[in-house]
Amino acid sequence: MKIPRTIQSKIVSNLFKNKVIVLFGARRTGKTTLSKFLIEEIPDSRYINCELLQNKVALETTNSELLKSFIGDNRLIVLDEAQHINNIGLVLKILVDTYPEIQIIATGSSSFDLNHQISEPLTGRSRKFLLYPFSIEELANKYGKAEVGAKLEKFLRFGLYPEVIEKTEVDSIEELNDIASNYLYKDVLQFERLKRPELLLNLLRALALQIGNEISYNELSKLLGENIHTLKRYIELLEKSFVIFRLSSFSRNLRKEIAKGQKIYFFDLGIRNAIIQNFNPIELRNDVGGMWENFCITERVKYLSNHRKFANLYFWRTYDQKEIDYIEEHEGKLKAFEFKFSKPKNEKLPVDFLNEYENTSFQIVHNQNYLDFVS
């Protein structure tokens, strides 16, 4: 069953404007499916799988006439998994400069690979979009808020990858273990020929067990027996391959604010739970608070990205242990949020923060009002 992707309309509005559309995203988030939906709606379109050797060879040329001969007289060309083409950035530049009437969509599952190759050649010639696993908003638009609300626990346990949305618990676990393996070994470890799969797994487990907490590189270094520089490099690669993302601490005025802290979250809780092999029901878990925080922030990140809303994202903490889970800064205004899985009986305001930073709103997001926050 097709679930419309919010980002599709944003991509359509940017077609045929003499820009290459670059569609990033983790493996199996639906980039190929979305690309084929676009092809179905536009006549004279062609889908090209760049992992196939014959297509890879044909596209690895800077001869514009050879490129045109291969892609034919189509108006729209999808180059799926385009990072497999050597010098893909230069190839795309030649196509967009020589044949501006042709719309190129290039997809890639590894931003550290594809983005590295295209950034400089396509300066001023591209529009970049990021496709996440399904968002709660997309599911609510398809099934209705009531049905989505009824399945909230399932989403916290198994995430929102397209392959698991309508599967049984047993099949969902199989799919998530497979996706997690592709993350770890196909994307990250192959990049720069990393030789330490056991370190990567142990690092991911350590991060997965402390979601919602500020990370300490010194503690990770002691726990894993590895130097901080290597750990930071691995975390950077995990972030660039859409496994995790980081929030930095907000610090402007107060001397007691922690200025250089970081928190790490997973783009999908199903992947996170697969890493620690814990798919237990909510009532049997001791990590619900961290999971809820991860879920809400990730869904908010999806919402902002899907609607092309750009904001600075932070958390806030002081040395005397006062904190706010999540802060958005947009157009000079601050929005502060706390995440509690169950609705609290009393709402405790972050008085210090609100007094110090004027023009700030505050809200507690819980399991009865979260849909307003993420859609």
Number of domains: 2
> N-to-C terminal Cα separation, in Å?
21 Å
Number of DSSP-assigned strands: 11
Strand content: 15-25%
Number of helices: 17
Query: Helices and strands: which structural class?
Result: alpha/beta
Task: Give an account of the 3D structure.
- This protein is an alpha/beta fold.
- The chain folds into two domains: 6-130, Rossmann fold, CATH 3.40.50; 136-324, no CATH class.
- The chain is built from 17 helices and eleven strands.
- The chain has helices at residues 6-12, 31-41, 53-59, 64-71, 88-98, 111-118, 136-143, 145-150, 152-158, 169-188, 197-208, 217-224, 228-240, 269-276, 288-306, 351-356, 370-374, and strands at 20-24, 45-49, 76-80, 103-108, 126-130, 244-249, 262-266, 312-317, 323-330, 333-339, 360-365.
- Strands 7-6-8-9-10-11 form a six-stranded mixed beta sheet. Strands 2-3-4-1-5 form a five-stranded parallel beta sheet, with helices on both faces.
What is the gist of this entry?
The chain is α/β, with parallel strands linked by helices.
Per-chain topology:
Blueprint: H1 6-12, E1 20-24, H2 31-41, E2 45-49, H3 53-59, H4 64-71, E3 76-80, H5 88-98, E4 103-108, H6 111-118, E5 126-130, H7 136-143, H8 145-150, H9 152-158, H10 169-188, H11 197-208, H12 217-224, H13 228-240, E6 244-249, E7 262-266, H14 269-276, H15 288-306, E8 312-317, E9 323-330, E10 333-339, H16 351-356, E11 360-365, H17 370-374
Parallel strand pairs: 1-4, 1-5, 2-3, 3-4, 6-8, 10-11
Antiparallel strand pairs: 6-7, 8-9, 9-10
Helix pairs in contact: 9-14, 10-14, 11-14
